[in-house]
Design goal:
The chain is an alpha/beta fold and 305 residues long. It has a domain at 12-174 and 199-227 and 271-286: NAD(P)-binding Rossmann-like Domain (Rossmann fold, 3-Layer(aba) Sandwich). Helices cover 42% and strands 15% of the residues. It has 11 helices and 13 strands. It has helices at 20-31, 56-66, 80-85, 87-107, 140-155, 175-186, 202-212, 231-241, 254-260, 276-280, 288-304; strands at residues 12-15, 36-40, 49-50, 70-73, 111-117, 160-164, 167-168, 189-192, 196-197, 200-201, 219-222, 229-230, 249-252. The strands form 4 sheets. A 7-stranded parallel β-sheet has the order 3-2-1-4-5-6-11, sandwiched between helices. The protein has a two-stranded parallel ribbon with strand order 7-10. Strands 8-13 form a two-stranded parallel sheet. Helix 2 packs parallel to helix 4 (87-107). It is globular and about 55 Å long. It starts with 11 loop residues before the first strand and ends with a helix. The relative contact order is 0.14. The chain binds NADP nicotinamide-adenine-dinucleotide phosphate. NADP nicotinamide-adenine-dinucleotide phosphate (NAP) binds next to helix 1, helix 4 and strand 5.
């Protein structure tokens, strides 16, 4: 009997598959029926192939061997203060690494979708930033990621960069986990009220990236949960969603915080992103408050266990 001809899902290769976003991407793609290969810097959960994106020959060999239709590039050196201390490594991973992935994707005939950051913007006015606003990073992380997104788009203008922000979710280190850990260990905390952005649940971001595969947009898109909030406001929402008293979180200023805990990298004061292009393509993420209320109770059960 003839088999019914179901359309074949494009094969996807994910870089950074063991990272915060990468893990959600791997399960989201598998659940949606995409043949998917996860690559990561080290062996581990979600990583099918070890791939150091800074090694052009290794990148070329792995990508030509896997022969993906789509490459989602989620690997990066994401330690913002680490980037400031080691600019050469930041540029190697976030700039050259992205260029290596883009070249290998182009040579394999694949479409590449790279993940970018709100830190390409200075945050000193002009937010919410749209896709066409001029970037002007104030940190090494931001400038290295900007070099990466420019390399990706210069390699093939049909490629896309989806900038996101304030990503949280999953097993690793992220802001809501830090808030609950500190509240558990110290019983209270001060959080800056003059740094504003667009919190983004990694599971929602993964689903939005997967939703873009069919449309294959080119150029820059912004993808964050809806709305914006200060770090202080987010910390209070996290406390509340965890069933704790939000008043355990008190506001402070960046100047006061840095006087006590100096950090090498500057953060944008307001890097809220406007998701104009994704919305026009029918891809929208729920408001950040809904994502926090949905995710944080699960996180709280883990942190307080
Ligand atoms: N986290 C945020 O708030 C945020 C905000 C805006 C944009 N983004 C962007 O979103 C994307 C995903 O970030 P994330 O939050 O999932 O970060 P993450 O948890 O740090 O994951 C990044 C992954 O990249 C891997 N990696 C680092 N160097 C590599 C190399 N040389 N070769 C191969 N893999 C390497 C890391 O592996 P190891 O850990 O094993 O080194 C890690 O698994 C990145 O492009 C990031 O710039 C993140």
């Amino acid at each position: 009997m003839a088999q019914s001809a179901l359309p074949r899902r494009p094969a996807v290769l994910v870089t950074g598959a063991g990272g915060q976003l990468g893990r959600y991407l791997m399960s989201c793609l598998a659940d949606a029926g995409y043949p998917v290969t996860g690559t990561g810097a080290h062996e581990g959960d979600s990583v099918d192939r070890v791939l150091d994106i800074t090694d052009p020959e290794q990148v070329s060999n792995v990508v030509s061997n896997v022969r993906p239709d789509v490459v989602i590039h989620a690997a990066a050196y994401t330690d913002v203060d680490g980037c400031e201390r080691d600019p050469a490594h930041a540029n190697l991973v976030n700039g050259d690494g992205a260029a290596n992935i883009a070249r290998a994707a182009r040579d394999a005939g694949a479409w590449a979708l790279a993940v970018g950051t709100d830190f390409v913007f200075p945050g000193d006015g002009g937010a919410p930033y749209g896709e066409d606003d001029a970037p002007a990073p104030i940190s090494v992380y931001g400038s290295s990621k900007l070099a990466g997104e420019r390399a990706v788009l210069a390699t093939d203008p049909s490629f896309a960069v989806a900038r996101t922000a304030w990503v949280f979710g999953g097993a690793g280190k992220h802001f809501p986990r830090t808030v609950l850990n500190v509240l558990k260990s110290r019983g209270g905390m001060e959080v800056v009220d003059d740094e504003t952005g667009s919190p983004t649940f990694a599971g929602d971001l993964a689903a939005a990236l997967v939703a873009l595969i069919d449309q294959r947009p080119s150029g820059i898109l912004h993808l964050t949960n809806g709305g914006h909030v200060s770090r202080f406001g987010l910390a209070r929402a996290v406390a509340e969603a965890a069933g704790l008293d939000p008043a355990l979180v008190q506001p402070t200023t960046t100047a006061d915080f840095l006087a006590r805990y100096p950090l090498p990298a500057k953060r944008p004061a307001n890097s809220t992103l406007a998701n104009n292009r994704a919305a026009a393509l029918g891809v929208t993420l729920r408001p950040w408050q809904d994502a926090v209320r949905d995710y944080v109770p699960r996180l709280a059960a883990e942190v307080t266990a």
